[in-house]
Amino acid sequence: MAKHAPRHVLLSRVIFGSASAILLGLVGWVAVRAGGGDAEPDGKPLMVLPTGVVQAAAEGSLPPLPPTESDQVSPSVSVSARASRSPSPSVPASRTPSVPASASPSASVKPSKSTSKPSAGTSPSRTVAPPPADTIAATYSTSASWRDGFITAIRVVNTGTAARDFTITLTYPSSADVEVRGAWNASASGNGGTVTLRGGTLPAGGSINVGFQAEKRSRDLVKPVSCTVGGGSCKVS
Prior knowledge:
This protein is of the alpha+beta class.
């Protein structure tokens, strides 16, 4: 029994080596067919085995075959695990700065410009003195006239209730070129076309006759074209 044991071991090595050589030969042949290696003249590919592999197969000392892909355990990582481990870049909504509605400018804050004008009742009232009543009445007439001169007579009456002075303004045509030579009961001034008479204080209800003498360049009778009295009326006859 002890003598047959080495034979069985040697036989097992030979069988295992032959099977390994056949397997390697098939792998080499497939590699040659796929890579398009050397071929015979008739187009058939040659199967070349490495010398070291053939010798090892004959001696029954082939190296162990590398593990196949099915024997290798590849760590698998589930997609869900990766997704759960990856930090989320999302920012919570509570950290987003929000502007309160009350911070926005409102149109009601703008100052309004008032275009209303102050009413007349608020402005200070001015007391305007009424014009004096027409209390002086004057009547103009020509008492004498000659070639280069004339004499006037004016009746002045104070129809008011208070004493007052008077002023009479006479306007003659500019062509007459009137020049005053003297006056009575009043002061006379002015030459050319305008003569002004100023009288003293005339009591209420009182009257006075005033007049003046003047030269003229017109041979015709000369009369004033207008007669005005301050605070009264004037009539030319």
